[in-house]
């Protein structure tokens, strides 16, 4: 599991700052249907205007980020290629959430320690959820995820982002925050790497201890049981 110190790779090595045209060999770009499929939205000329807001809204960004958890190195390379291209288009876009999405991509980039790094599925799900939440300023979790983003320059790939802040929240909407993180934990647990990510922070012990404590009401017990069964 990669480390999470600030800085990340050098720009010469970092996937999100690689030239999209040189990100992987031309031969693989031409012959792989999967790569052609993933890169299609950004496969036109540099003058092509991409609807960045729509790309996020329909969860195409989330799908691309999820591909970073693929065990197939070519699929991950294709996803990095699309992210690099999307970021370039996003810099020239003009809509309200642009700067927050750029900050999110920068946080992801700064946590990458080696080229074509495989993410755990849990972390890619978190990034996808945050990207969607950024488009929903009317919801309570919009404030929480933005506050977390602004206080972190990089995504620590060894940890579930914001787990303790949300699970032990003293906010008036603490139940909303706890349910959000529990839902994420349940849906993000896909393989042994996700389990190891949770175990590193002793998340299972934390949830079980809370489940059996007097502080856990019946509603919270039901949520915890449903999300982590």
Automatic annotation (TrEMBL):
- Entry protein name: URB1 C-terminal domain-containing protein
Q: Which InterPro entries match?
A: URB1 (IPR039844), URB1_C (IPR032436)
Q: Where is the URB1 C-terminal domain?
A: 61-222
GO cellular component terms given for this protein: nucleolus
Residues annotated as signal peptide: none
Q: Lineage of this protein's species?
A: Eukaryota, Metazoa, Chordata, Craniata, Vertebrata
Q: Which organism is it from?
A: Hirundo rustica rustica
| Example GO BP | maturation of LSU-rRNA from tricistronic rRNA transcript (SSU-rRNA, 5.8S rRNA, LSU-rRNA)
């Amino acid at each position: 599991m990669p480390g999470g110190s600030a800085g990340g790779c050098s720009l010469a090595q970092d996937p999100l700052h690689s030239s999209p045209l040189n990100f992987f060999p031309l031969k693989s770009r031409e012959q792989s249907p999967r790569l052609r499929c993933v890169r299609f939205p950004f496969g036109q000329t540099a003058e092509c205007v991409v609807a960045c807001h729509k790309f996020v809204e329909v969860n195409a960004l989330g799908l691309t980020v999820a591909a970073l958890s693929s065990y197939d190195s070519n699929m991950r390379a294709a996803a990095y290629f699309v992210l690099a291209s999307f970021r370039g288009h996003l810099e020239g876009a003009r809509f309200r959430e642009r700067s927050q999405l750029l900050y999110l991509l920068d946080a992801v980039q700064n946590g990458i320690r080696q080229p074509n790094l495989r993410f755990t599925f849990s972390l890619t799900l978190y990034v996808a959820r945050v990207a969607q939440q950024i488009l929903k300023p009317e919801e309570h979790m919009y404030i929480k995820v933005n506050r977390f983003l602004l206080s972190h320059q990089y995504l620590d790939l060894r940890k579930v982002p914001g787990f303790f802040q949300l699970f032990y929240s003293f906010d008036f909407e603490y139940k909303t925050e706890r349910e959000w993180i529990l839902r994420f934990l349940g849906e993000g647990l896909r393989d042994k790497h996700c389990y190891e990510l949770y175990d590193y922070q002793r998340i299972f012990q934390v949830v079980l201890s809370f489940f059996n404590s007097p502080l856990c009401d019946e509603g919270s017990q039901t949520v915890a049981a449903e999300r982590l069964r």
